[in-house]
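Final report, Chapter 2: Outcomes

The project's central promise was a pipeline that accepts a single protein chain and returns its three-dimensional structure in a standardized token representation, suitable for archiving and comparison. That pipeline is now operational. To close this chapter, we reproduce one record exactly as it appears in the project archive, with the input sequence first and the structure output second.
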Amino acid sequence: MVIDLNSFYLPEDKEKENNGLFIMITCAAPSEDGKMQVEMTYEGDPFVLLYILKKAQEQFEQNDDMS
């Protein structure tokens, strides 16, 4: 499954709030065909979650460009 995080944004009013967020991402070892089961659990504001995931995606893409 591919999620396009570019379609999400953090509204200005949410950005100013002091929100806590817990995210846990787990994955199993890759199978022989290279696929991997990934699961995510979170508690907190979903807008903050989307903001964090988008920033993480940007960081991974930046790191890929450097290699």
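Archive annotation: DSSP finds two helices and two strands in the chain.
This record, like all others produced under the grant, will remain available to the consortium after the project formally closes.
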